[in-house]
Amino acid sequence: MVFIDLDGTLQLNPFERAVWPQVVGEMAQKSGLSGADILQMIEDENNARQRDDNIPAILAMDMDDISLTVAKRLGVSITTSVTELVNTYAKSHSTLLEYALESLQELAAPHRAIVIATKGLAKYQLQVMDALGITPLVTDTLTPDTHNGLKKHRHFFGDWPEQAKLSIMVGDLYDDDVLYPSGHGFKTLWKPRATLIPDSLYHLDPFTRAEEFPYGPEQTVHPTGIMHSLRELPAAVTYLEQHSL
Fold first, then answer.
1. I need a labelling partner for 48 at 20 to 30 A (CA). Which of 73, 128, 208, 236 fits?
2. Which residues span the domain enclosing 75?
C-alpha cells in the first residue's frame, strides 16, 4: 500500500498563486499591514493549531476559519472566501508536478492500493485533484475532515494499514511524511526540495542516497529512501515490496 501526499509532492495548488493574493490583499488594504506580515500570521496560526492537540484537526487546517481569525486580530472583516476562490481557480491555477500522473499510472496494480494522504481539507483538495486528473488514478483520499486527524495521528490513516502487508508513505515534508509515518511503522520515501539534495548524491539510488544524506541535528529519524524526482517512485516502491515482505 502506498500513501502519497498531494501538495508539493504531486501538485501545486492554487493557494500561493490565486487564493492568498486575494485574501491577504483584502486584509492588507483594510489593515495597512504588509501582505508578507499577514501571510506570516496565517502560517503561524495554522502551525499553532496543528501543534495543539486540543484543537480538532479539521479546525487546524480550515483556512477559511484561520483567515477570519487573523482578520479579527487585525480589527478588520473580510468578504473573500478561501473555499470559493479554490473552486474558482482549481483548474486554472493548479499544476501537476513533473511525472506525477505517469508515476501514478505506473504504480497502478491489482495488488497495490494507492491512497492520497493530505493535510488539506477535502473542500480544498478534491476539486483540484479532479481538475488535474488525479482522482481516477487513486484508490482513496484521506483528509483531516474524513478521519479527524493529521498525519501525526495513527487514526488518520484509518484501517488501511491493517489491510496491507507493507505501508509506504511518500511526501515532501520531513515531519508529516517521514517522522510521523515512521512512528506508525511505515516505510518512507521522502521527496525534499531539490536544492536540499547535494549534487554528489544525485547519481545514487534512493536508498543509498538516504544513507548518505546530510541530515539536520533534529532529523533523528531517517527516511527509507530519498527521491529527487517522481520518476524514481515506481521503482522504489517495487523494490520495497520485493525486499520488505
1. 128
2. 15-89
Please write the tens of the pLDDT for every residue from 81-139.
999 999 999 999 999 999 999 999 999 999 999 999 999 999 999 999 999 999 999 99
Residue ranges of alpha helices (H) inside the chain are 20-31, 35-51, 57-60, 63-73, 82-89, 100-107, 122-132, 144-147, 160-163, 174, 180-183, 206-212, 233-244
Sequence-separated (6 or more) residues with CB below 8 Å from residue 212: 201, 204
Domain count, the chain: 2
Distances (CA, A) of 241 to 5, 93, 169: 19, 36, 13
Number of other CB atoms surrounding residue 111 within 10 Å: 8
Task: Say whether pTM exceeds 0.85.
Answer: yes
Q: Phi and psi at residue 32, in whole multiples of 5°?
A: 85, -5
The CA radius of gyration of the chain, in Å to the nearest whole number, is: 19
**Nearest CA to 174 among 140, 116, 216, 209?**
216
pLDDT in tens, 199-224: 999 999 999 999 999 999 999 999 99
